[in-house]
Design brief:
Its EC number is 2.6.1.16. GO terms for molecular function: carbohydrate derivative binding; glutamine-fructose-6-phosphate transaminase (isomerizing) activity. It is an enzyme of class 2 (transferase). The chain is built from 15 helices and 12 strands. The protein has helices spanning about 10-15, 15-25, 45-50, 60-75, 85-90, 110-120, 135-140, 160-180, 185-195, 200-205, 210-220, 235-250, 285-295, 310-315, 330-350; strands at about 30, 35, 50-55, 80-85, 100-105, 125-130, 145, 225-230, 250-255, 275, 300-305, 320. A 5-stranded parallel beta sheet has the order 4-3-5-6-7, sandwiched between helices. A 5-stranded parallel beta sheet has the order 9-8-10-11-12. α13 (about 285-295) links the parallel β10 (about 275) and β11 (about 300-305). The two termini are about 30 Å apart. The protein binds 5-amino-5-deoxy-1-O-phosphono-D-mannitol. 5-amino-5-deoxy-1-O-phosphono-D-mannitol binds near residues 107, 157, 359 and 362.
């Protein structure tokens, strides 16, 4: 079943281009620069006047929600609130009949996410689930479902479920923008074209595995890692750190690069590997100056950036090239790199990659 791969996680990492194709299939209407989500069955008129989206999820799916906020606010221009399901359900959230509650869950069985969705719908919100499992509890207990087509995910550490969630959120952003009249056809076409380039860009990043082997050799014994990103890549810094913690048992922290000077910079010395997500985008210059701050304190830099970015290559101890792609899809492509970093380090350490200690694939208890 592992089809020659050493672990399910590695197989699932490599499957991502095909599963993104599956998730986009039939949903992009190129001739109309629109997205077909008729399967979701939410009333278009209601959606056009929705006042706020509340995205709720746990773990990796929560990081997808954070990326979703960037996508939806910038593309559809509607306010998005993001919360951890386990926090949302125990505060007094502001939810009205004009709120769309989007619950993101691979399994559709996560207890906190189910309870948060129930709470939001009880307060009058409409519920949309982004879910990978047909007939799951979440899919049954909501108003509409947008399925990711990741296929069964066996590895406890989520990989292809995450990137297909991001693809679904990209589709949702364009769909909302078109329904609300906040996104014109020309702009929509640009975003849809970008989404269609994801599989090829992922294939490209999957062809060069040498940097990951080197990272494992050089830093496999490190006690702690820092992951830095800004803007739409900040959540990928969080996700990269979570992946490393889960499967290699190395402490890792994800940080918004601009926050470094407010505390975590104190941690940096020649022992500290710092993974920096720095492809060219609207915050590239800012990220680069944060990276210089790390360099000045002799931190070890693992940089993920554009293939032809010689300046970044020069600053990095280890460089992971990624193809130049539109900012909105950078999280999908960069995810593959952070997954591979975690996988190679865990494999180097010889941990049980697919079944890490203390973790279960779906968390059905509070
Ligand atoms: O099935 P869900 O998407 O609701 O699961 C949420 C989290 O439990 C899950 O993403 C968890 O954080 C993974 N182990 C991450 O790799």
């Amino acid at each position: 079943e592992k089809q020659g791969y050493k672990h399910f996680m590695l197989k699932e990492i490599f499957e991502q281009p095909a599963r993104i194709v599956d998730t986009l299939r039939g949903r992009i209407l190129l001739d109309r620069a629109d997205v077909d989500l008729s399967e979701v069955e939410l009333d278009a008129e209601w959606l056009a006047q929705v006042q706020k989206l509340t995205l709720i999820a746990c773990g990796t799916s929560y990081y997808a929600a954070l990326v979703g906020k960037y996508m939806i606010e910038s593309i559809a221009r509607v306010p998005v609130e993001v919360d951890l399901a386990s926090e949302f359900r125990y505060r007094t959230p502001i939810v009205t009949e004009n709120t769309l509650c989007v619950a993101i869950s691979q399994s559709g069985e996560t207890a906190d996410t189910l309870a948060a969705m129930k709470l939001a719908r009880g307060l009058g919100a409409k519920g949309l689930a982004i879910c990978n499992v047909i007939e799951s509890t979440m899919a049954r207990e909501t108003d509409g479902v947008l399925y990711t087509h990741a296929g069964p995910e066996i590895g406890v550490a989520s990989t292809k479920a995450f990137t297909t969630q991001l693809a679904a959120l990209g589709l949702l952003a364009v769909w909302l923008g078109r329904r609300r009249g906040t996104l014109d056809a020309e702009q929509a076409a640009v975003h849809l074209d970008a989404l269609r380039t994801v599989p090829t860009a992922m294939e490209e990043i999957l062809t060069d595995l040498e940097p990951y082997a080197e990272i494992a050799r050089e830093f496999g014994q490190a006690h702690s890692f820092l992951y830095l990103g800004r803007g739409i890549l900040y959540p990928i810094a969080l996700e990269g750190a979570l992946k490393l913690k889960e499967i290699s048992y190395i402490h890792a922290e994800g940080y918004a690069a601009g926050e470094m000077k407010h505390g975590p910079i104190a941690l940096i010395d020649e022992e500290m590997p710092v993974v920096v997500l720095a492809p060219r985008n609207g915050v590239y210059d800012k990220t680069l100056s944060n990276l210089e701050e790390v360099k000045a304190r002799e931190g070890k830099i693992i940089a993920i950036g554009a293939d032809d970015d010689n300046e970044l290559r020069r600053l990095a101890d280890i460089f992971i090239p990624m193809p130049e792609v539109a900012e909105v899809i950078q999280p999908l492509v960069a995810s593959v790199a952070v997954q591979l970093i975690a996988y190679y380090i865990a494999d180097f350490k010889g941990t049980d990659v697919d079944q890490p200690r203390n973790l279960a694939k779906s968390v059905t208890v509070e």
